[in-house]
Amino acid sequence: MDITRMTEMKKIRRLILHHADFDFKDWPIVKQNSPIGDITDGIASIIKEVDDWHRKRWVTGLGYHFIVGNGHGIPDGYVAIGRPMKYQGAHVKRHNHDSAGILVMGNLVEHEPTDAQVAGVASICATLCFVFDLDPLGEYSRRRFGRKQEGMVISGHNDWSGHETNDCPGRLSDFLSGIRMETQSLLFSRMMTLPYTP
Q1: 118-153 tens-digit pLDDT
Q2: Which residues, other chains included, contact 94 with Cβ-Cβ below 8 Å and sequence gap of 6+?
Q3: In what order do the strands lie in the sheet with 14-19?
Q4: Burial, 4: exposed, middle or buried (Cβ in 10 Å; 0-12, 13-18, 19+)?
Q5: What architecture does CATH give domain 15-191?
Q6: Where are the domains of the chain?
Q7: Of 172, 138, 175, the residue nearest 154 (C-alpha)
């Protein structure tokens, strides 16, 4: 990643989900209980692969802020950190200025995400909703450059104007409603565990 060429993001207002369009089958299977060296090596390898792929398209490199593993290189459901949140992503043209990009590994056009991946997505979404004060069940509506942009706060790549014919995030779209509800539940439980300050 080349952060010297990245633009800082002023505010996060939405979370946009993607799929990788390939399954990373050439990477070794890594589990949550694998040796830490295997996990960190796998994460570094996947991030480098996606960064190299993105550098061919965008000069700044890795466009996603988070990557949710599928067990090949990154444990199934494990959330790895990608591009620093301080900077705009490069994941949905004309919609990067106020969104966090979350990549779910795997070709989700050909198969569904795993249960662990869905749980990992809900977990990172709950954390981001908590930190950036977002309503996981809420709607997004803003006008930018004379165009109205509308959609759900937690959404898929093809939910945004100019990207409707894109197949991303594949079958993850079928899980979005459940992910929003689980995110709301996780967010509520986290808020209930905060210390009370009068």
Answers
A1: 999 999 999 999 999 999 999 888 777 667 778 889
A2: 144, 145, 160, 161, 162
A3: 79-81, 66-68, 99-104, 14-19, 154-156
A4: exposed
A5: 3-Layer(aba) Sandwich (3.40)
A6: 15-191
A7: 138
**Alpha helix segments (H runs only) across 56-134:** 115-132
**Exposed / middle / buried, residue 171 (Cβ in 10 Å: 0-12, 13-18, 19+):** middle
Sign of the CA dihedral with 35 first, then 81, 119, and 104 last: negative
Amino acid at 116: A
The token duo for 75 is 């444990």
Q: pTM for the complete prediction?
A: 0.90
DSSP assignment letter at 73: S
Say if CB 6 and CB 96 are below 8 A apart: no
CA gap 144, 54 in Å, rounded: 25
Q: Which residue has the tokens 């080349």?
A: 2
Average pLDDT estimate for 102-121:
94
Give residue-wise pLDDT tens across range 29-81. 888 888 888 889 988 998 888 888 888 877 678 889 999 999 999 999 999 99
3-state helix, strand and coil shares in percent for the chain, rounded to the nearest 5 = 35, 20, 45
